[in-house]
Amino acid sequence: MLEFIDATPISMFVIVALALGLAPFVPEPHLFEKTRMLFAGTLIKPIDIFDLIMHLTPVLALIFKLARVYIFKA
After folding, report:
1. What span, in angstroms and rounded, lies between the C-alpha atoms of 68 and 42?
2. I need a surface site. Which of 5, 33, 53, 68 has the fewest CB within 10 A?
3. C-alpha triplet 55, 35, 37: angle, nearest 5°
4. From CA 51, how far away is CA 34, in angstroms rounded?
């Protein structure tokens, strides 16, 4: 798995993180909505939890890629 992450350009991670992290663009991105629900304590439905994980995964992958490139120098 690390070979895939190392071989994939950062731009691909940025594009996917922006596209899925901010989808749908109107009226409000799910990532913002679900994060607000998490901090408010109203994120209790399994579908909402899955939705948060789905929209957050590319952002976390981008952070991991940036850490591998700039911190760990892989």
Report:
1. 34
2. 53
3. 120
4. 8
Residue with tokens 């594009």: 15
For residue 5 the two structure tokens come to 């992450």
pLDDT on residue 14: 96
Number of C-beta neighbours around residue 16 at 10 A: 16
What are the tokens at 24?
């749908």
User: Tokens standing for 23?
Assistant: 């989808």
In the numeric block, the tokens 């591998």 are attached to 68
- The three-class DSSP label of residue 46 is helix
Average pLDDT of span 3-17: 94
Q: Kindly indicate the confidence band of residue 74, based on its pLDDT and cuts at 50, 70 and 90.
A: low
The residue type found at 71 is I
| Max CA distance (Å), the chain | 40
